[in-house]
Design goal:
Helices cover about 35% and strands about 15% of the residues. It is an alpha/beta fold and about 250 residues long. The longest helix is centred in the N-terminal third of the chain and has 17 residues. Bound molecules: ligand BV8. Ligand BV8 binds next to helix 2 and helix 10.
Amino acid sequence: MHPDLDTATIHDIATALRRARHVAVLTGAGVSAESGVPTFRDAQTGLWAKFRPEDLATPEAFARNPPMVWQWYAERREAVARVAPNPGHHALAKLQVRFETFTLITQNVDGLHAKAGNRNVIELHGNILKTKCFECNAPQSPAADHAIQPPPCSCGKSVCRPDVVWFGEALPAKAIDAAQRAARSCDVFFSIGTSTQVYPAAELPFTAKQRGALVVEINPDATPFTPHADHVIRAPSGVALPRLIAALEG
Ligand code: BV8
């Protein structure tokens, strides 16, 4: 058993879940770490070692050097296509079917929650496997062999870009509205595998807490939200979530 997995905490959370009608979950890059997807805080490697993600994931970076940003995403897309959901993802898929209302909100762009079987995932920051027009935002499906240059868009006005939300760009209105509604109305809110530093997503656990939800943070490290959490599980999500499911089923 993981040294930081406190049985009493797991028991208390399971008891609260048995009474809950609406459970909401916010996930960050940490949930995909055990699938081998580097988190945003992990040091960049290889060609990208000299860049910070925040400097590449912007419309300005893409406009300045489309091939460079396109290649960064092409490499990440290839890496994501090779990985599989981990026990943390599978536990969240099991959790979804146990409640009257279950809202899964993710900052991740890797599509792993859907791959694990979760339905109606709210992708706040888009999906790296999808492409759209840089100019008119129309969905595009470029030929897979465009690894070096961003392909031209069918509209003929611009080139393709990854269908993700870059820093400085607004989140999809429907996604952030649904996420904020869930944070305001849920009984239990989980904040899992996020450094709680990227806004407006990072506001969600605070909103849930203010509106009276029981808020649980699952993260091996502390975050700015930690002091506000009702329960903190200092363990990897791939260990903590299956343990929580076992306690619920037990
Ligand atoms: C916007 C897609 C406005 C791209 C990403 C206040 C309000 C509003 C905005 C701001 C604000 N303050 C600052 C801003 C601007 C900015 C921002 O928040 N900057 C930060 C750096 C301060 N926000 C924005 O620009 C947003 N846009 O607000 O626009 C606007 C409004 C109207 C009109 C125009 C504009 C857009 C933000 C979205 C950026 N896009 N991703 C891509 O992926 O390439 S964000 C990116 O960071 C990823 O999505 C990532 O998921 C996300 C957050 O990071 P985390 O998920 O938390 O990951 P991180 O690596 O940080 O941490 C991992 C955690 O996991 C760690 O805590 C670690 O301990 C833990 N962990 C590790 N292993 C495990 C684990 N946990 C559990 N188990 C494990 N095994």
